[in-house]
């Protein structure tokens, strides 16, 4: 959530974004990879104004202990599947000299000195010497993280496969149960922050499968490792120091500050610096506990979205149907028009539903090209993408929220016979576009806006529908002389 969180697992996982919710903000096994986000956030450490207006003790009376703890206890050391694997001992794939095997070993050997050198900065943040020594005593680097930090994952999930996994019947049913069980919490947070409760619940569901997949690594060790070893030390130094502050303040106990390899923790995966900016003590118990307090977790997540620009009372987007002979060059995130202007071009809402606000501004998204569903995306979709800068992630959040609210599946079908390109094929596609003179930047196998624009231009020049979708058909055409 800071976002530069490095996406570890699926957010087209996450390229290491700037918000590190690094991306880290990568949440384990289920999200296989769309990877890692970056956002400068405003400090928000106190509860909503309405809490004061209704009396100092109203929240204490309102919020009862949750029926189940948001994050289950960590598996005992040595339990089957509990221990992370060891470092491979190999150099990283990025080619960065700081990721060579010898450099990693040298940094690891200097780990204790590196931590000691961070004490003055911790002191300036109000961490006492006793606390610093307590929380860093006996720390050793978790070098397995180096393999994860510099991995070159194969992005083999299509948008529909991603949605199938994250917006399942089981996840919908469990989300509705939790919304009902914690109705008073969601009521209060929605009043205080103006963020749709179903969106917050959807983030809870996608990020940790409702607290069943919270990560297994001590955040203090992960961030200390990344602060002293590898190629992103400057970034993770701030995360390590913020983690120290969290422990020193007593917001979260050391044995509960457990998360992903990049340091994201809790049911909605906060990075330590993001926690500092957005966490709130919504249940008024004196601690901002986004791990074990449903009230604090829900309100803190809502505060994050509100600060990032969430518009109260508006949705995230609409599934739409395109007219015949539509100009697909208009499907560009940078091209925003009012819903009324889109309607004038022949677009209408799927299921023949009305648009509630004709003046809303939106861009057109075609996640599977011309053969899949189309969507008009509003401001709140962009806010979700600040939480995790992956379109598939934001689409999953929005769709799961709608299903939790009682909505149905998308009306239009996906081209399920189409396959996702492998990382090697994506890299080849970019290289072939570059050779033809299209400005895509340095080929890296990650298909961002510039690559999509280049694909559209290539398709238009070759008589194909310019929908910008990186299909095997486009790659085969590029391979031809």
List SSEs in N-to-C order: HHHHHHHHHHHEHHEHHEEHEEEHHHHH
- How many domains, as an integer? 3
Strand runs, count: 7
Q: How would you state the average pLDDT, rounded?
A: 84
Structural class by SSE content? mainly alpha
Count of helical regions: 21
Largest sheet: 5 strands, antiparallel
Distance between the termini: 45 Å
Relative helix content = 40-55%
Tell me what portion of residues adopts beta-strand conformation: under 5%
Report the C-alpha radius of gyration, rounded: 23 Å
Task: List its salient traits.
42% helix, single chain, 21 helices, disordered N terminus, five-stranded antiparallel β-sheet, 481 residues, Lysozyme, two-stranded antiparallel sheet, mainly alpha
Architecture blueprint of SSEs:
Layout: H1 49-53, H2 58-62, H3 101-109, H4 111-117, H5 119-124, H6 129-136, H7 144-149, H8 159-166, H9 169-181, H10 183-193, H11 197-208, E1 217-218, H12 219-228, H13 233-249, E2 258-259, H14 272-278, H15 294-307, E3 317-321, E4 337-338, H16 339-344, E5 348-349, E6 361-365, E7 374-377, H17 379-387, H18 391-405, H19 423-435, H20 449-461, H21 472-479
Antiparallel strand pairs: 1-2, 3-5, 3-7, 4-6, 6-7
Helix pairs in contact: 8-18, 9-11, 9-18, 10-15, 11-18, 12-13, 13-14, 14-15, 17-18, 19-21
């Amino acid at each position: 959530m800071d976002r530069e969180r490095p996406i570890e697992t699926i957010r087209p996982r996450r390229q290491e974004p700037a918000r590190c919710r690094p991306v880290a903000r990568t949440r384990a096994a289920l999200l296989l990879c769309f990877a890692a986000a970056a956002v400068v956030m405003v400090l928000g450490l106190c509860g909503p104004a309405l809490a004061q207006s209704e009396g100092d003790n109203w929240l204490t009376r309102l919020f009862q202990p949750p029926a189940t703890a948001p994050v289950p206890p960590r598996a005992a050391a040595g339990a089957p599947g509990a221990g992370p694997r060891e470092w491979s001992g190999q150099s990283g794939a990025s080619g960065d000299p700081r990721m060579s095997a010898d450099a990693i070993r040298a940094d690891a050997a200097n780990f204790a000195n590196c931590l000691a050198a961070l004490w003055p900065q911790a002191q300036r943040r109000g961490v006492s010497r006793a606390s610093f020594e307590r929380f860093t005593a006996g720390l050793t680097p978790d070098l397995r993280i180096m393999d994860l930090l510099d991995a070159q994952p194969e992005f083999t999930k299509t948008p529909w496969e991603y949605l199938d996994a994250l917006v399942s019947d089981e996840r919908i049913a469990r989300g509705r149960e939790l919304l009902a069980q914690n109705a008073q919490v969601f009521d209060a947070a929605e009043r205080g922050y103006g963020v749709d409760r179903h969106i917050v619940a959807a983030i809870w569901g996608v990020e940790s499968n409702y607290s069943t997949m919270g990560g297994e690594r001590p955040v203090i060790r992960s961030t200390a490792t990344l602060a002293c070893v590898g190629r992103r030390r400057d970034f993770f130094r701030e995360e390590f120091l913020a983690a120290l502050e969290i422990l020193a303040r007593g917001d979260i106990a050391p044995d509960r500050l457990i998360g992903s390899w990049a340091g994201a923790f809790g049911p909605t995966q906060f990075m330590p610096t993001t926690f500092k900016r957005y966490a709130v003590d919504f249940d008024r118990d004196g601690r901002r506990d986004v791990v074990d307090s449903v009230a604090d977790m829900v309100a803190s997540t809502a505060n994050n979205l509100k600060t990032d620009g969430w518009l109260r009372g508006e949705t995230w987007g609409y599934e739409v149907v395109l007219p015949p002979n539509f100009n697909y060059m208009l499907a560009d995130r940078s091209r925003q028009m009012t819903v009324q202007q889109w309607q004038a071009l022949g677009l209408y809402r799927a299921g023949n539903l009305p648009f509630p606000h004709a003046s809303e501004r939106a861009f057109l998204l075609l996640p599977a090209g011309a053969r899949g569903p189309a969507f008009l995306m509003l401001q709140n979709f962009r806010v979700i993408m600040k939480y995790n800068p992956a379109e598939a992630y934001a689409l999953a959040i929005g769709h799961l929220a709608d299903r939790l609210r009682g909505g149905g599946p998308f009306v239009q079908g996906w081209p399920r016979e189409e396959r996702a390109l492998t990382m090697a094929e994506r890299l080849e596609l970019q290289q072939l576009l570059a050779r033809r003179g299209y400005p895509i930047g340095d080929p890296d196998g990650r298909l961002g806006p510039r690559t999509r624009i280049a694909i559209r231009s290539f398709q238009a020049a070759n008589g194909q529908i310019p929908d910008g979708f990186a299909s095997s058909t486009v790659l085969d055409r590029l391979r031809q002389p």
